[in-house]
Predict the 3D structure of the following.
Amino acid sequence: MMMRARIVGTGSTTPKRILTNKELETIVDTSDEWITRRTGIKERRISSNEQREDTSEMATGASLRALDMAGLLPEALDMIIVGTVTPDRQFPSVACLVQKELNASRAVAFDVSAGCSGFLYALSVADNAIATGCCKNVLAVGAERLSSVANWEDRTTCVLLGDGAGAVVLSPSTDADGILSTHLGSDGTLWDLLYSSDGSSKVPEILDTVEEKPFHLKMEGNRLFKKAVSCLAEIAASALNHHGLSCEDVRLMVPHQANLRIIQAVAERLHIPMERVYTNIQKYGNTSSASIPIALDEANREGLLKPGDYVLLVTFGAGLTWGAAVVKWSI
């Protein structure tokens, strides 16, 4: 029978520090009303060096929770893949640091860089590794520290970004459940809609524990919005059609949490009511690669999913990159 990967555990972690829209009013020329209306975000989590909340440590915390749910010890892992654009350092990879902390000595470990699509790219690699038989148990993680690349003088971008990590453990299954397929896309000709630029801005005093990297995020919001909606809707519809599924079959859509208006526009195009779309952007903002696994873990722990439910994952990020996955839930 065909082997496929199934999710057997989920986990997530976010920093302790909450930065509200009201606090952002003291940093840049903005308002709680403007941020909420334009993005749906009310607050976000900001990591701190003092709290040991760098990317690898958050990734490790999320991984431990996922392994605990899966009932697996770290030494059972054959592969660790981390999607991130904000690693602790250029090298070694976050995945290798997670391997060290978990003492997962048997696992091959590496990162993937696909902007906000990093987790779905990692999930696709994990799925293929299990389907081909080269791995049995794989840990796929999305972890980001976007506060370290925020331009705190740019009100159009700094209000969006937050930190956190999410993880899933995947194991083989010959049943009809699991990851039915993953679908990926990219277009490097549009790289300049969302990219990192040399230089950094002054970190405001109330965020003096934020790590500052020597580059910051730049974005062309209007064009990116339109491209995101069209790509997300198209690849989601294609993924469902691949299995002869309709939007009515989807129990829950878990999208990348970039902007509530993007999520609503995609749901409308797919004819999926918002009550079947999971959103937590109001609490965490855009956590890039971490957003889908954090949302998936919360939806799972809130009891919103049961075995046999069809789950649609969709994402869009820098590159440009985008992707979708159809999952028949198995926990």
